[in-house]
Fold this protein.
Amino acid sequence: MGVRGECDLVEFCKDEDGIHLNGHRGTYSVFPVEYKKGKPKATKEDILQLVAQAICLEEMFCTEIPEGAIFYGETRHRENIVIDEDLKKEVRKMFEEMHQYYSRSYTPKVKFSKSCNACSLREVCVPKLGKKKSVKEYINNMLEDEV
Ligand code: SF4
């Protein structure tokens, strides 16, 4: 898919249908776990992120990953997610779309939302730039933010 990343956590549990791990006896299943600060969302972005990790791990370990989990810090609860073919298709489609944007040098407009405050991509994405306002207004707001 032309992506790479770092998982928060991957659990390897003994499983006779699992994979071999270098330096360990037996075979293991692969189970990705994504950690989030907040609570479960109405939208699917956390699930799609987990599925993207699972697709990459499947490629790395030549295995199938039917399930993963998302742990939410606010509810202190872990939700198991079934990773099915529909979710994988959705993820692949999104990456294809992303690569098309990239090859056309097109940056889609984003809308600032509450979740931007806790997003690790905030400094790169600069979501407030999406709002239509004058350069003068933008610079004044930036200067105010720094005070
Ligand atoms: S900062 Fe950008 S990538 Fe992060 S949540 Fe906001 S719009 Fe999405």
The longest strand covers residues 9-20. The chain has two domains: 1-108, 109-147.
